[in-house]
Automatic annotation (TrEMBL):
Keyword Cytoplasm carried by entry: yes
Similarity annotation: Belongs to the peptidase C65 family. Otulin subfamily.
Site (Linear diubiquitin binding): E288
GO process terms (BP): innate immune response; negative regulation of inflammatory response; protein linear deubiquitination; regulation of tumor necrosis factor-mediated signaling pathway
Subcellular location: Cytoplasm
Superkingdom, taxonomy of origin: Eukaryota
MF (Gene Ontology): cysteine-type deubiquitinase activity
Cellular component per GO, a single term: cytoplasm
Active site: D96, C99, H313
Name the UniProt record assigns to this protein: Ubiquitin thioesterase otulin
Organism of origin: Camelus dromedarius
Segments of this protein annotated with the region Linear diubiquitin binding: 65-66, 94-96, 238-242, 310-312
């Protein structure tokens, strides 16, 4: 039974970015063609690129996207019907290897809440001072980690930075600084203004992908902390035991080389201190239909909710249904 539990958790654990999943292999032609459609205007358009589309009725979206009668389409329809009992609308997220991270970060940053305490951690930033570009002084976390773990220099920046002569430390510092600055700016706005500003932020590709590099670095930092605690015999979340039980990620160095560009949902949740609950439509009718990352989150963590059609397609449900009573 214990082995069965581990297999089940590994299946849930790897539910994130993948270049090719079993579900991808068995999609029909319409679904493959749908993936080619972007949530953005063509590059020649004067309109901004949209990483997160405007909201629409959730069942209208379902009817538009899942018209067939295949087994998968039927499962998706039933899943959306179930989700529509909780949420009335949906915002479609551009599907690629950053989709889960994009959906999580967008929702977390758009929520009406104060700047997260972990972004105010003195370990992350030095004293505030005037800066001609970003408004904050340099960050000390990147230098601290890279000086201690030289293998971090193997870090590969995302595709958006390929061909550019980027200094790794400087780019990570810039990305972390930008994350803090943008989140702090959003935290000062009221709900409607905050949503508008967040929408605008996620139309700026350069800023958007800098934010992803920042979160990836925070995920790596969290992985290092968990690994060190495990090696010292301290109690750690069970997912971190599984994380370092794989042949391809027996330590943080291997995790960096082999898996950092594949989102680990548990690790993402711990990095941004948010509970991530995911409606996994392909698991409709099973206990895995609604999956929580982590399984036993701290009560004070904010919650973000996602809808997953498969490993590369995460959308955001919005507008919670109002409860009525007789």
């Amino acid at each position: 039974m214990f082995i069965t539990l581990i297999v089940l958790m590994l299946d849930v654990f790897h539910f994130g970015w993948s270049l090719l999943s079993e579900e991808d292999m068995y999609r029909d032609a319409d679904e493959i063609e749908k993936e080619k459609e972007l949530l953005i205007h063509e590059r020649g358009s004067s309109e901004p690129r949209l990483s997160v589309a405007p909201e629409m009725d959730i069942m209208d979206y379902c009817k538009k996207e899942w018209r067939g009668n295949t087994q998968k389409a039927t499962c998706m329809k039933k899943g959306y019907e179930e989700v529509s009992q909780k949420f009335t609308s949906i915002r479609r997220v551009r599907g690629d290897n950053y989709c889960a991270l994009r959906a999580t970060l967008f929702q977390a940053m758009s929520q009406p809440a104060e700047l997260p305490s972990w972004l105010q951690d003195p370990e992350l930033t030095l004293v505030r001072c005037r800066c001609s570009t970003l408004g904050f002084r340099t960050l000390k976390l990147p230098e601290k980690l890279i000086s201690k773990y030289s293998w971090i220099k193997q870090w590969k920046l995302g595709l958006k930075f390929e061909g550019k002569s980027e200094n790794l430390v400087d780019k990570i510092k810039e990305s972390l600084t930008l994350l803090r600055k943008k989140w702090a700016g959003l935290a000062e706005l009221r709900t409607e203004a905050r949503q508008i500003a967040c929408d605008e932020l996620f139309t700026n590709e350069d800023d958007e992908y800098c934010l992803y590099e920042a979160v990836k670095f925070l995920m790596l930092n969290r992985a290092i902390e968990l690994y060190d605690d495990k090696e010292k015999g301290k109690e750690v979340p069970f997912f971190s035991v599984l994380l370092f039980a794989r042949d391809t990620s027996s330590d943080p160095g291997q995790l960096l080389r082999n898996h950092l560009n594949q989102v680990e949902m548990f690790l993402l949740a711990y990095a941004v201190c948010h509970t991530i609950q995911v409606y996994r439509l392909s698991k409709y009718g099973t206990e895995e239909f609604l999956t929580i990352y982590p399984t036993d989150p701290p009560r004070d963590w904010p919650v973000v909710t996602l809808i997953a059609e498969d490993d590369r397609h995460y959308n955001i449900p919005v507008r919670v249904c109002e409860e009525t009573s007789l």
